[in-house]
Amino acid sequence: MQRRDFAAAVTAALATPAVLGAPATAADRSGDGLARHMRAALAPELDDRAAARALVPHLHDVGFDWHPETAPLRKLDFLVAYGFGNRPPAGGGDPSKVRPEPGPVNEELADAVARVRRHRDVPVYAQWEIARFLESKHHMRNVTSIEPVIAPDGTITYLSTDGVAAQVAELRAKLPGGIGTAGVVGFRDHVKRCVQTTRDRGMAAYAPRGFEMPGTYDVESGQPWTRRRDLYLVHDMASQWAVLREKLVKQAYPNG
């Protein structure tokens, strides 16, 4: 089977029950059916059944599962809100030394945090783009803004998703009661990776159950990969693969 036939083979296999008039099975609905079809298509392509079995769970997780694990609000001890995109500085200037505008998506993320906080009054750690709206629009207290790193010459280094998680982990580790469990707020296509990244930094983390995350892209975002969904999904998958690669290499060869 040639590479160009892989997606077609999977699609055709998944479509078979509908074509025949048979309802999808529980396994198909749960994703087990998709994984089975993926193994069937990939094994001959690689000419290696063992490699296909090893790869398919990762392909399924990164490419076909975009929903984070959730938990009820009563189990969450604090909230972490991750920013998404921004707008270029309103007054122009050197973007390496002038902060961008938070933008409408981060305002929507702040609104999502406010909705959660109405039901569970816990501390909030928010990337600065979101924290600005929590303070100015929602007048929210008990908010810790996760700020970018500013060098002595004024150069701004913006934190990655992992950078934000690292800052929060460091702050929570100093508390006498321990880190606790994080409720993660993030953009719809970003929130799964936000949860994973928060966990990778040693915190128990879940998305708040029953709360919808913002999902409208800003075509004027200063970060091109956050302007369109098709572009962002590739970006997010690339980030997931990079983290997974490091984990698998360390797992296979812990001593280098």
**How is the main sheet built?**
6 strands, parallel
The tally of domains stands at 2
Provide the low-confidence segments as ranges.
12-29
DSSP summary: helix tally: 9
CATH topology of the largest domain: Rossmann fold
Structural class: alpha/beta
Integer-rounded radius of gyration: 21 Å
Overall CATH architecture of the largest domain: 3-Layer(aba) Sandwich
Strand order within the widest sheet? 1-8-7-2-3-4
Could you give me the name of the CATH homologous superfamily of the largest domain?
HUPs
DSSP strand count: 8
Order of helical and strand elements: HHHHEEHEHEEEHEHEH
The end-to-end span amounts to 36 Å
The amount of helix comes to 40-55%
Shape call: globular
Question: Could you report the average pLDDT, rounded to the nearest whole number?
Answer: 90
The top-level CATH class of the largest domain is: Alpha Beta
Question: DSSP strand (E) fraction?
Answer: 5-15%
Please give a structural write-up:
- The protein is of the alpha/beta class and 256 residues long.
- The chain folds into two domains: 3-64; 70-245, Rossmann fold, CATH 3.40.50.
- It has helices at residues 6-20, 26-30, 32-46, 49-64, 104-119, 128-136, 161-173, 191-200, 229-252, and strands spanning 70-71, 78-81, 124-127, 143-146, 149-150, 156-157, 181-185, 204-208.
- α1 (6-20) crosses α3, α3 crosses α4 and α5 crosses α6.
- The radius of gyration is 21 Å and the shape is globular.
- The model is unreliable at 12-29 (pLDDT under 50).
